[in-house]
Design brief:
Keywords: Membrane, Transmembrane, Transmembrane helix. The chain is an all-alpha fold. The chain contains eleven helices and two strands, in the order ααββααααααααα. It has a domain of 136 residues. α3 packs antiparallel against α4 and α7 runs antiparallel to α8. The longest helix is centred in the C-terminal third of the chain and has 30 residues. The chain starts with a helix and ends in a 14-residue tail after the last helix.
Length: 259
């Protein structure tokens, strides 16, 4: 295990990325455990407040990412060890920010409401993308060397083609296929060619009754496929999210305490 870690992580220069990856996961889990204990009013776990003002942990995340980011720029060419330390601190700050991503998106506190699941989705996306980078995959077919046997223009063409396929896939509502497809381009071909999800922008533009040329048959197929295949996957994802981060089932129209 030690030899594998040295060859795959240290010798390839991925130690800072690995430290960021581990710190992101650990800090997110620790934060969620902490806020769930606060929500349950267990022991001495309480919100951080100054007077009557509650200090959200996204504030600490912003400060930590700024400090660690600047420190990383200063030590990147001086010490690999300290560079890895700053990367880990950056991961902690990123976890604190992404854990309240929904607050930033909606500009009001939706932490334990349905909209709060967006924060967990953001963390999952960050973990997945970082993990793929850690495995050595590169987005859009880009490689470190920047050279291909076919020449630079062929490489540029492939990158542009992959990017267009990724945009189409994302517009069809297939978020995970689009994101993973950035690293495994063959997935983008299937994502771009297959039917769009019924609530996606693509379906709204080309399938819905309000479209210039509505296609009710395709919309009906998309709805049936959503109910048969997509809904069980979403339910499984929500169950896993709630296992990790707690339930997000408070209606957004009701005013409740922060945690």
């Amino acid at each position: 295990m030690g030899e594998w870690f040295h060859q795959r992580i240290i010798e390839t220069g991925r130690l800072p990325l690995f430290c960021f990856f581990v710190a992101l996961i650990v800090a997110f889990v620790f934060t969620r455990v902490n806020v769930r204990l606060i929500r349950a009013r267990v022991g001495w776990f309480r919100n951080v407040s100054v007077g009557e003002m509650h200090i959200h942990h996204v504030v600490f995340g912003v400060v930590l990412t700024l400090l660690s980011g600047v420190a990383g720029l200063l030590v990147s060419g001086v010490s690999d060890t300290w560079y890895a330390v700053t990367a880990a601190l950056f991961g902690v700050g990123a976890a604190l920010i992404l854990d309240e991503f929904a607050l930033i998106l909606h500009l009001h506190d939706v932490y334990w409401e349905e909209e709060g699941r967006t924060s967990v989705d953001a963390v999952f996306v960050a973990v997945a993308v970082t993990g793929l980078l850690l495995l050595g995959l590169r987005p859009l077919g880009w490689e470190d060397s920047g050279e291909t046997p076919q020449g630079p223009w062929t490489a540029v063409g492939l990158i542009v083609a992959n990017l267009l396929l990724a945009v189409v896939t994302l517009l069809k509502g297939k978020i995970w296929t689009g994101l993973v497809g950035l690293f495994v381009p063959v997935l983008l071909i299937f994502g771009a060619l297959r039917l769009a999800r019924p609530g996606s922008p693509w379906a709204h533009w080309f399938y819905a009754p309000a479209a210039r040329r509505p296609r009710p048959g395709l919309m009906a197929r998309a709805v049936r496929r959503e109910k048969r295949w997509r809904r069980p996957v979403i339910q499984a994802k929500i169950a896993f999210q709630e296992f990790v981060s707690g339930r997000h089932d408070l209606p957004s129209t009701r005013l409740r305490p922060r945690r």
